[in-house]
Design brief:
It is a single chain. By secondary structure, the chain is of the alpha+beta class. It folds into five domains: about 70 residues, no CATH class; about 200 residues, no CATH class; about 160 residues, no CATH class; about 170 residues, no CATH class; about 210 residues, no CATH class. The chain is about 55% helix and about 15% strand. The strands form four sheets. Strands 15, 16, 17, 18, 19, 20 and 21 form a seven-stranded mixed sheet that branches.
Length: about 900
């Protein structure tokens, strides 16, 4: 079933603010009615008008329903509180706020901005970190974190006491053919208990049963594949599909809600089939493929399973001393962790960082709200004094102020949810990493209640509390006073100044961290990749169905020849992997420890083995520093020829010159003879260290690895339609081979920077918003002070004071506040920067340039914000001021 439009889901989430009785009786009908109206409106303009009308009316409906549900409409007196009817208070509050549009709009925008930002990040944190996994008894699910495991090890896991069930799986890229153009998919091989452990539900057919693991030629489709590829055919069960040349009978289609853990099988897996336990690869003790998870029995603690897995580790080391011990001879451990923790471990620190940053932004917005309410309260001191002399009690006035705060908070909450709706879409579009359960992230009842609570608490705490100072004013003084004495007291000025200092301090923290992340991002782009990516286009392929290494190479050589014949192509080559295919700290499967042959010490040499075609280095323009690349005649010789990176040559043999002619490898694996030394280059990311690498001919490639990455270098600029041209060239040589993507190498490099770009963009947005709010707060404070001191300034000017001196006095007052906040902000930034250091590249958390830059930016903004009120002060007409007095 297709998901409802986001706007409909947002409207449904906002209905959470209605009383429970109204939601129970009318909530579904209101949601259905809005959904139907939304579907009927065909154009974007009509839908926008419908949304504006419905969302605009909703706050009034919510207030009215709550008043009706609570019965707060009569006049009662309880405990000294004069309750003349909350309905009257809210109506009066609405009228009062309408008479002050500048205050109302500004306050609602501030609350909406803060609440929207917090709600956006909280939605991510809530769905990814806080909510339990959507699996049965999720709190008892565990995983073994060593990495992937062999089939033999998995079977040993199944024998452990204290577990209810185990499940395992792994995925491989595969080619789905026979349904239009060939499609590259992810196919998961899963164990017997996989679907039951993760609570899979069906849209059609059945799940895998025990008998299926005897024949393995059956498959279960994901819901997305069933819809996109097969048009949601209701007769899909019983049909056969062709994957990698093999036929599979479809026995079921999963529900759209099923989303297994991403570290077991990747997100977007299209086809699930049984693990073939008879496969020699699965049976091999050193062939680690299977990721595992399990459910502990009732009453079993994760520490108990840790002890049992430690015992299993010792037993496996004794049984397989050549495979289950590390370099020091110690048993390889089986570390156990809760599945929830393991699923979010990679993203936890980043999301917590965002939550802290957005909390600081909310604090700045709240301080501005306090500014506005305090200024408004000071302007109403005389009004409140007159009300009290006419018999209004303090409780009644508090209720009135509370009603105003609640109205502002409700409006800000609605705006905040709307901004969160937009911000969430933008954030998910920017997000560079595959967040766990990202597909289910959405605004819902829980998030709506959170945002509403934040908005109301913000309005009450930062709005009502400053306003209460108004009610505590001395009646006699206020009534006897005139405009000549209606200035803020010293305590109030200190409070406003303190708020400005706090705003500047918090804003500087955000701006400084944004500067650190931006500098880190720029530093990460600076390193030379070690090859020339300009003009190189990449084509990842998954050639399958080849029974021998020769047939695989012949097929890929035919594709290569077809690509080289395309007009404008300078050269082409291919390899099993390509630079920047795997980014960050992840590593691919081609990393080998090298044995002790000819002086190569396995304790200190670990390298990436790259089977590539002969022109690979030439196509990528990786310089060969010493020696040469192998010839076609040398490709099949023994030991196999190899071109090693300079780092490998130095680590293994001491120098590039000493490496030529040396032989290395393991006894049970191919051995290699160094015939050339190439320049170091980046493989996992510009911000990652140069990897030790070895390039060898494709002739040494195991034939059961269905991967090939084509690299095509153009002579000039890419012509229009190049991607389609290259796809057609591939299909001329291999008609059934899927071509999922054709991309320039520069895009892969950009993608490797996506995480740092995301961090710097988010913090830059938060820092810019905080900077603006701090400047606005300082401007408002100084402008208010100028208005309050208008008589004093007029007298000074009348007595001959220079206008420039008056302006310097005002600017100096603003800069003193800003400087105090900057000092506090720098000290706080030194501490916060330490928390960021593991996310920075070649810059420290206390980088002086970032702190100086942030301080200069804050003080410059403060100077501008101070200069505008200073100009007004300098232009004060002393005659008009004295005449008014």
């Amino acid at each position: 079933m297709a998901r409802r439009p986001r706007t409909v889901r947002l409207y449904a989430a906002l209905l959470a603010f209605l009383p429970s009785s109204v939601r129970r009786d009318d909530g579904e009908e209101m949601e259905r009615a809005f959904s139907d109206l939304w579907a009927e409106e065909g154009t974007a303009w009509h839908r926008w008008r419908l949304g504006a009308r419905c969302f605009g009316r909703l706050p009034r409906v919510v207030v009215a329903e709550w008043l009706d549900a609570t019965g707060l409409t009569g006049s009662t007196k309880t405990g000294g509180w004069e309750m003349h009817g909350w309905g009257r208070h809210f109506r009066l509050a609405s009228r009062t706020l309408r008479k002050a549009p500048a205050f109302t709009i500004t306050t609602v925008l501030l609350i909406g901005l803060g609440v929207g930002a917090v709600t956006t990040i909280f939605t991510l944190v809530d769905h990814v970190l806080l909510r339990p996994l959507p699996y049965p008894a999720a709190e008892r699910l565990i995983t073994v974190e060593m990495g992937s495991h062999s089939g033999t090890t998995y079977r040993e896991f199944e024998k452990l006491e204290g577990m209810e069930a185990w499940a395992g799986g792994y995925a491989e890229s595969a080619n789905l053919t026979g349904e239009g153009d060939p499609i590259r998919i992810e196919m998961a091989m899963v164990s017997e208990g996989f679907f039951s452990l993760f609570g899979a539900r069906l849209a059609l057919g059945r799940l895998l049963v025990e008998d299926d693991f005897e024949r393995v030629n059956v498959a279960v489709l994901s819901h997305g594949t069933w819809e996109r590829v097969f048009g949601a055919d209701p007769a899909m069960v019983g049909r056969s599909i062709r994957v990698d040349g093999d036929r599979y009978e479809v026995v079921g289609v999963l529900s759209a809600a099923f989303e297994p853990p991403q570290h077991i099988v990747p997100s977007g897996t299209a086809v699930y089939r049984p693990i073939d336990w008879s496969d020699e690869r699965i049976q091999a003790i050193d062939y680690h493929m299977i990721e595992v998870a399990g459910r502990m029995a009732h009453g079993v603690a994760i520490e108990d399973m840790g002890v049992r897995l430690d015992e299993l580790s010792l037993a496996m080391a004794e049984a397989y001393p050549d495979h289950h011990v590390d370099r020091e001879g110690n048993p390889n451990p089986f570390p156990v962790a809760g599945l929830q923790d393991a699923s979010v471990q990679r993203v936890r620190s980043g999301l917590n960082l965002l939550l802290g940053a957005v909390g600081l932004l909310l604090l700045v917005a709240c301080l501005n709200v306090a500014h506005l309410f305090l200024a408004r309260g000071l302007g109403r001191v005389r009004e409140m004094a007159i009300r009290r002399t006419m018999g209004a009690g303090a409780p009644g006035l508090v209720q009135q102020l509370m009603a105003e705060s609640l109205v502002v908070g409700a409006l800000g909450g609605v705006l905040g949810i709307g901004l969160a709706y937009l911000g969430l879409e933008a954030l998910l579009a920017l997000n560079p990493t595959a967040l766990p359960r990202a597909g289910s992230v959405d605004l819902d009842l829980r998030v709506a209640l959170f945002s509403g609570g934040v908005a109301l608490v913000t309005a009450l705490v930062f709005g009502l509390v400053p306003a209460l100072r108004t009610i505590g004013s001395d009646l006699a003084n206020e009534l006897k006073g005139s405009s000549r004495s209606a200035t803020a007291g010293r305590g109030t000025r200190r409070l406003r100044g303190g708020l400005v200092v706090a705003e500047v301090a918090v804003s500087l923290v955000l701006v400084a961290q944004a500067g650190l992340l931006l500098k880190s991002y720029l530093n990460a782009q600076a390193p030379d990749p070690g090859f020339d990516p300009t003009g190189v286009w990449t084509i990842p392929l998954t050639p399958t169905g080849h029974e021998t290494p020769d047939s695989y190479r012949e097929a890929m050589d035919a594709v290569l020849a077809s690509l080289q014949a395309v007009p404008g192509v300078e050269g082409a080559a291919y390899g099993l992997t390509q630079p920047f295919e795997f980014t960050g700290t992840g590593r691919c499967c081609w990393m080998n420890s090298l044995g002790e042959e000819d002086g190569v010490d396995a304790e200190r040499v670990r390298t990436l083995i790259h089977p590539v075609s002969r022109d690979y280095l030439k196509t990528l323009r990786i310089p060969v520093l010493n020696g040469a690349v192998w010839t076609e005649a040398e490709a099949s010789t023994t030991p196999a020829p190899a071109v090693v990176s300079e780092r490998f040559a130095i680590d293994a043999f001491g120098s590039a010159d000493a490496a030529i002619g040396r032989v290395f490898g393991r006894a049970e694996r191919p051995r290699y003879r160094v015939i050339g030394v190439a320049a170091d280059n980046k493989h996992y990311g510009l911000d990652q260290p140069d990897e030790s690498q070895v390039y060898v001919p494709m002739e040494v490639l195991p034939f059961d690895i269905p991967m090939a990455h084509m690299a095509v270098r153009l002579r000039g600029a890419a012509p229009d339609g190049l991607a389609r041209t290259l796809r057609e060239a591939v299909w001329r040589a291999a008609p059934d081979l899927p071509v999922p993507t054709v991309r320039p190498m520069e895009e892969w490099i950009e993608d490797s920077m996506a995480g740092r770009r995301f961090d710097s963009a988010i913090f830059a947005a938060f820092g810019s918003a905080a900077l603006f709010l701090a400047a606005a707060g300082l401007y408002g404070t100084l402008l208010y002070n100028v208005r309050q001191q208008r008589r004093e300034l007029g007298i000074r000017l009348a007595l001959g004071a220079a206008r420039e001196r008056v302006e310097r006095h005002v600017v100096g007052g603003g800069l003193r506040l800003a400087f105090g906040g900057a000092v506090i902000g720098v000290l706080a930034s030194l501490w916060v920067g330490r928390l960021l250091e593991d996310r920075l590249f070649e810059v420290g958390g206390s980088d002086p340039m970032a702190l100086l830059g942030a301080s200069a930016l804050l003080l410059g903004s403060a100077a501008l914000a101070s200069w505008l009120p200073a100009r007004r002060a300098g232009r004060t007409d002393p005659l008009e001021t004295l005449r008014a007095e």
